[in-house]
Specification:
Chain lengths: 531, 103
């Protein structure tokens, strides 16, 4: 075997084109979008971060996905964890490391150094490490290499000058080999890595971070540097789930959603008329209203009336699937058979169960898997228990963006705080996200003349000739219906007062209800709602 | 590469035979220096009671992994127990003797 390992070779590379460098897909959900195509091919990438931030898992996943999805075998050099520990890590996202090794798709070498066993007596180099690397790379024809983490060498070897020049040589050597390398490094106090690995890796640097806020920990990822490629510069939350790492990028950094002109039914023809023809496909709808105002029913109504080949997901943060099915069947909606036919999936979680990013991740996963055309979130206000306003807004922006780019119609419900009853619009969560919303339906529930009645109106609906009416909204065992309100000069009449008025009109040979207050005589004793 | 000598036991406690394995990479000046230094050292301190095996890792790269070699040259003391490990061209004789437990 021959090695091209001249002392301290610094290969002079041709100046690369400013755009369009070759990249190697990571296969890691979100990371490829964020880096517009993966890690720089044939070059080293530095992954740095504190203990337990997920460096090793990310590096491993890059290698494993390379070997399994992209036909690129890999060589793993582990300086800290044993092969057993790595195998456990890899198993956590569904792969069998031993099998990949026996199939010749991965080579693993555990480099063990114990300073106490080593006496240094004179000049040396790290050619042994190079020989091992070359041997491992050649044995499987590796295209990807993981070094996790060569910083251990600093603890194991006393002569730092030799170590530094050898690390520099190592990085140059990896580039000459043309392998896409990932090198991990522990975060230092004032530098990216404790031993300044960033000095040697200049093409791509990714920083991982684990932060705990209000007892909920969030992992974040930031691409600090990426020569020759466009990349998002924000911090992106990521999660380590049972399918590996998922980075949650803001799916579009600009507003480039396709605007569909197609209308879809809200599930109720009267509501469709109020909306001027239903919702736009791919739009985002907010339904706000106090408790018991019928938000869930409006959401379920949309979710339950899909065409034959369309699907919907209903994320419920207050009711279990069984509860929701029972409650909706009481108003004539048969969700159970939709669930059976795989047209509807009801996913119930408690908001306080885990952090915002985790919720977002769970929703992304379910959406990617089930491929719905409609998604309902009921209610989003419950997230205020686990995040502040700006965090919820950021999460909703991500989610709405994600849904819009996929052309999914989203309906979010929102309950105002107790002080807002009857007004039901200017809650914290609403105010934060109203700019994301295309259509805003306001439900009101009010007490009048010993009854609790409901009303519905469309506060805004972008690009539609929606009605400006406030309509009475009745939920019965036949579902939702909107009733043309009976008004008088002082307001409109609802509930039994309206029924009395209707009977009165019928007896007097009056036509259908209309809303012209001029034609409607005032009725003493009728329930009036000042609006 | 084996050298054996007579038995002049001035120090009875090191009567047993010393077995060394020296890992080098090709015929670099540093490798050659390590081999020369080791031979000189053995002849001075362990005359006739040592055996040296030199392994060129370019010829058998798999042994780098098997024997956990990182630095070159690396000297392993196989016998007597306990095993010891010294890296470098072995030019610092005191450190070599200390590292190998020879005194």
């Amino acid at each position: 075997m021959s090695l091209s390992t001249q002392e301290l070779n610094f290969p002079t590379r041709p100046l690369k084109a400013p755009l369009g460098i070759a990249q190697a897909l990571t296969g890691i959900s979100g990371l490829d979008e964020l880096t517009s195509g993966g890690l720089p091919r044939g070059r080293p990438t530095l992954l740095c971060g504190g203990a337990g931030c997920g460096k090793t898992v990310l590096g491993l996943e890059f290698l494993v996905r390379g070997a399994t999805q992209y036909g690129e075998p890999g060589a793993i050099f582990t300086f800290e964890e044993s092969i057993e520990e790595l195998a456990t890590n890899v198993a956590s996202f569904g792969f069998d490391l031993r099998r990949l090794i026996s199939q010749g798709r991965l080579a693993v070498d555990h480099v063990q150094i114990d300073r106490h066993q080593i006496e240094e007596a004179g000049d040396y180099d790290l050619e042994g490490l190079f020989i091992r690397l070359a041997h491992a790379i050649d044995s499987v024809g590796a295209k990807r290499v993981l070094l996790d983490t060569p910083e251990v060498l600093f603890a194991g070897l006393a002569n730092k000058d030799i170590l530094r020049s050898e690390l520099r040589r190592l990085l140059g050597w990896l580039k000459d080999k043309g392998v896409t390398a990932v090198i991990t490094g522990e975060r230092g106090e004032s530098s990216l890595t404790r031993n300044g690995l960033e000095e040697y890796v200049s093409d791509c640097v990714i920083l991982l971070d684990l932060r705990v806020h209000d007892q909920i920990s969030t992992r974040r990822l930031r691409v600090i540097k990426y020569r020759g490629a466009r990349h998002g510069t924000d911090e992106y939350p990521f999660l380590i789930g049972d399918k590996g790492i998922s980075v949650l990028p803001l799916s579009s950094l600009q507003l480039v959603h396709e605007a569909s002109a197609e209308r879809i039914s809200s599930g109720n023809s009267e509501l469709d008329r109020l909306l001027g023809g239903g919702y736009y496909r791919g739009s985002t709808i907010l339904v706000s209203g106090g408790s018991g105002s019928g938000k869930t029913s409006v959401g379920a109504c949309l979710a339950s009336t899909r065409m034959r080949d369309e699907r919907a997901i209903f994320f419920s943060f207050e009711e279990s699937p069984a509860q929701l099915i029972r409650n909706m069947s009481s108003i004539g909606m048969d969700l159970a058979s939709l669930v059976e036919r795989q047209q509807l999936r009801i996913i119930s979680t408690r908001p306080s169960g885990f952090g915002l990013e985790n919720h977002l991740f769970t929703m992304y996963q379910a959406i990617d898997e089930f491929k719905p055309s409609v998604v309902v979130l009921d209610p989003i206000t419950d997230f205020s228990a686990i995040g502040n306003r700006s965090e919820i807004r950021a999460m909703m922006t991500r989610l709405v963006d994600h849904l819009k780019t996929q052309g999914i119609t989203a309906l979010l419900t929102s309950a105002p705080g107790p002080a807002m009853l009857g007004e039901g619009s200017n809650t914290e969560a609403d105010a934060g996200i109203s700019s994301l919303i295309d259509t805003w339906i306001v439900l009101q529930s009010f007490e009048v003349a010993g009854e609790r009645n409901r009303a519905v109106s469309v506060r805004k609906s972008r690009g539609t000739a929606h009605s400006n009416q406030i309509r009475e909204f009745v939920i019965s065992d036949r579902g939702l219906s909107l009733i043309n309100t009976y008004r008088d000069a002082a307001g409109f009449v609802t509930g039994s007062a309206r029924e009395a008025q209707q009977r009165h009109d019928a007896a007097n040979g009056g036509g259908a209800a209309n809303n012209d207050p001029g034609k409607r005589p005032g009725r003493a004793g009728a329930a009036k709602v000042p609006l | 590469m084996t050298a054996a000598g007579g038995r002049q036991s001035k120090k009875p406690e090191i009567r047993c035979e010393y077995v060394f394995r020296l890992f080098v990479s090709g015929a670099t000046p540093r490798s050659q220096r390590a081999i020369d230094n080791l031979q000189t050292l053995c002849e001075v301190h362990l005359p006739g009671r040592h055996r040296i095996e030199v392994v060129d890792l370019y010829q058998s790269p798999e042994r780098a992994h098997d024997e956990q070699i990182i630095a070159i040259p690396t000297l392993l003391k196989i016998e007597p127990f306990p095993p010891r490990r010294v890296i470098g061209d072995l030019s610092q004789v005191d450190k070599v003797l200390h590292g190998l437990d020879i005194r």
